[in-house]
Amino acid sequence: MSRPFEIAFAVLLLLLLAPVLAVAAILIAIDSPGPVLFRQERVGRSMRPFHILKLRTMAESQGGAEFEPTPGRITPPGKWLRHWKLDELPQLWNIVRGEMSFVGPRPELKKYVEMFRSEYEVLLRSRPGLTDPAAIAFRHEAALLANEADPEAAYVARILPDKLRLSMAYAERRSLPSDVAVLLRTFGALPR
């Protein structure tokens, strides 16, 4: 997709979804102390770091971030936001700023990028995205990891290599029609 189109579409969505974002922000602020937005450094295009934006879904008062949040750390509004994937909406601003695209490999933490650097050097020739085939295939990633003794080790050993394989295969054949198809599949995969 062209950058002008992506910017215009992202701005339009931000305007249309402003009431949803406002309600979510109020619920987050009422529920627990801390900022409404969660910012985290990820690796972007050409291996440059940027800060991804999400609506905060976890209580801030329980220490630093871990790979999978402990039960009780996800707030009641956070459960709802995660279920409907509404916590991802602030990434539309990342698109406007040119850090992300609608379709592209999901941006990862630097430590995981370094583990698979050669793959990410290829993938991150383009902007990371809100969605791609790997994001659709692993949309229930938290549930897949819920019963693992070491969720992070399972993620690195099994899930991330599969996600990279899917993202690499998509990057090789990517086109405007395939990007549109991925967006439609993403909307189709959202909870009803």
Description:
The chain has one domain. It contains ten helices and four strands; from the N terminus they run ααββααβααβαααα. The protein has helices at 3-16, 18-31, 76-83, 91-96, 110-115, 117-123, 133-137, 141-145, 151-173, 176-189; strands at residues 37-43, 49-55, 101-103, 129-131. It is globular.
Indicate the radius of gyration in whole angstroms: 16 Å
Q: Quote the average pLDDT.
A: 91
Low-confidence stretches: 61-65
Judged by helices, strands and strand pairing, the structural class is mainly alpha
Strand adjacency order, main sheet? 1-2
Oligomer: single chain
Strand content: 5-15%
Secondary-structure element series: HHEEHHEHHEHHHH
Based on CA inertia axes, which overall geometry fits? globular
Largest sheet: 2 strands, antiparallel
User: What is the overall number of helices?
Assistant: 10
Number of strands: 4
Q: Between the first and last Cα atoms, what is the distance in angstroms?
A: 27 Å
Percent in helix: 40-55%
**Total domain units:** 1
Task: Annotate the secondary structure layout.
Blueprint: H1 3-16, H2 18-31, E1 37-43, E2 49-55, H3 76-83, H4 91-96, E3 101-103, H5 110-115, H6 117-123, E4 129-131, H7 133-137, H8 141-145, H9 151-173, H10 176-189
Parallel strand pairs: 3-4
Antiparallel strand pairs: 1-2
